[in-house]
Amino acid sequence: MDPLKPNVIEAVESRKIRDFITLKPFEGIYTLEGLSPETIVQSYIFTDESTRNLQDILVELGKEPGSERKSMIIAGDRGVGKTHSLAIIRELIRDPGLSRLITRHSLRVCLQPLAKKKFFIIEIKCQPHQEENLKELFYRAFEKTFQEQSGGNLPPMDHWLELEDSDEQLKFICDFIPKDHQMVILLDDISEKLLTYRNITKVIGDLEFLLTIALATSLYPVFMVATFFEYLLEPPPYTSKYQDLHQKLLEYKLTNAFLIKPITKANILELVTTNIILKTDLQTKGLEIVHRYLTERVPHFRHDKQLFLTIFPMHPLVFHVSFYLHRYIKNFSLLPFIYNTANKILGYRCSALVTIDLIFDLLYHEF
């Protein structure tokens, strides 16, 4: 391809970011804590991918114990919306009336059979350095929900842990599930907990408990939706830690025991292009020239053109790096960051992309 002509270069250097994008008003959220159920549902932007995932989960949840059903894993990178997806499930099964806030007809149809069911919801939020193992976290969460709904008390946890057979432990729990209810366990960030274990015995203990719940789903009024870091299911070749944990998952056949629903980075890009940064066909063609300009004139700028066209005015590296931030800044949210930053630089030259130094500024202020 021939280099850009001088008049084209001059034209590119005279254009502003506002010439290539239109920002759609966007009020993102940084944390789900303290939000009302209505706000949690209304703030969730459904894409085709997330709609399909939620439909499949709701259909599986609607099956009766004793049928061929499986618990679910929502898998994805950090920051793609796994936790928000879990919160949506919680609010919709707790109050099916919230389906009125959803515009996707197919989801409202899936929720109709669940409106007649009763759910006993157990929420477990894992933290990287919790001393309790998963089984202990589960019992604490179960005890809390039981006390809130019945006012009663469970036997001491030690009594439950002394039951050596996992089937006995499960039957013990099921005896305390309210009549005509189904227990739904919403398990968030279990992979982050597994990644910080130094003791393989603890890893094995948590995996065995996950397998117990998964195998019980078809027999008992027990259902789990867990979020998983995608690298544990499809580990990259450059780190042995992910590879080792993945081998354990395969050893315990967890990937077969659960149905796995992925949330991909394409889901985030769809949110950006439909709800934050809008571009006409003419603007997109102009950005193709900007991409050529940067490729020719900026050393080592060799980024995928389609990603550049989608994420502009963000530098493509900002998109890639942002997913790692959630391990260090839990309240970082890419979509509000994109909107707020782009809104400040509309008058900048079109070649002045938002670069990762702003990401590092966030880390600096966080620590």
Spell out the key features of this protein:
367 residues; alpha/beta; two-stranded antiparallel sheet; 19 helices; 7 strands; 52% helix; elongated
The low-pLDDT segments are none
Q: pLDDT average, as an integer?
A: 89
Distance, first to last CA = 46 Å
Rg of Cα set: 24 Å
Portion of residues in beta strands equals 5-15%
What gross morphology would you assign?
elongated
Largest beta-sheet details: 5 strands, parallel
What is the multimeric organization of the chains shown?
single chain
Largest beta sheet: what is the strand line-up?
Answer: 3-4-5-2-6
Number of helical stretches of at least 4 residues? 19
Structural class: alpha/beta
Could you write a compact summary of the structure shown?
The chain has 367 residues and is an alpha/beta fold.
Walk me through the structure.
The structure is a single chain. The protein has 367 residues and is of the alpha/beta class. The chain is 52% helix and 10% strand. A five-stranded parallel β-sheet has the order 3-4-5-2-6, with helices on both faces. The protein has a two-stranded antiparallel ribbon with strand order 1-7. Helix 3 (48-62) packs parallel to helix 5 (105-111). It is elongated and about 80 Å long.
Please render the helix and strand layout as text.
Blueprint: H1 6-14, E1 22-23, H2 37-42, H3 48-62, E2 72-76, H4 82-94, H5 105-111, E3 118-125, H6 134-150, H7 157-161, H8 166-174, E4 181-188, H9 190-196, H10 200-216, E5 222-229, H11 230-233, H12 240-251, H13 254-257, E6 259-263, H14 265-275, E7 277-278, H15 281-297, H16 305-311, H17 316-325, H18 334-344, H19 357-366
Parallel strand pairs: 2-5, 2-6, 3-4, 4-5
Antiparallel strand pairs: 1-7
